[in-house]
Amino acid sequence: xxxxxxxxxxxxxxxxxxxxxxxxxxxxxxxxxxxxxxxxxxxxxxxxxxxxxxxxxxxxxxxxxxxxxxxxxxxxxxxxxxxxxxxxxxxxxxxxxxxxxxxxxxxxxxxxxxxxxxxxxxxxxxxxxxxxxxxxxxxxxxxxxxxxxxxxxxxxxxxxxxxxxxxxxxxxxxxxxxxxxxxxxxxxxxxxxxxxxxxxxxxxxxxxxxxxxxxxxxxxxxxxxxxxxxxxxxxxxxxxxx
Length: 242
Hints:
Helices cover 82% and strands 0% of the residues. By secondary structure, the chain is mainly α. The longest helix is centred in the first third of the chain and has 32 residues, at 5-36.
């Protein structure tokens, strides 16, 4: 299948932006919580938020940033794959941006609320410090569960994307298979965490490994996006016809 100039530009844009998203997301979603949240201890968590407020705000900024980038990744992928199957390409846009991004943006309010509660605002003086710390920890937990809800759609959008990669004929089919496997991982972990939490310790570590099926697609787009060139065959055929 030959690629148009628009598709070539879309491949390069998608590769760069997808890689940028893959780099910034772990900082916001893994590194910052690991430094700030003490599981089961509201007071210790609140103390860390007070001591490392700059880090907490950097995490919020990174979380919002990588979701903005996600919008442009999805749009670039739509331009790349719409000629393969427009119905699946539209599903990528809906599941990958129109639903998941608003969830994450609204969910950030939980972190902002936690920061406000551990602060020294005068209007909070009517609430005792232990109660404020407990409420802050509640909002931190709500933020964590909000990400689990968003991850449902982080998994769902990989199914139409994987099908597009398989059917495209300009990408190795194995990349599409790995995307679908990663989607299964996201759905399995989110379902267990929300519906069957007693099995989380067994399922989530295994499902988390499947997430890495997304990375080969990212790296392939980065490398292939700069190597691929638009086909000149249509122009040559047109000249021959004249």
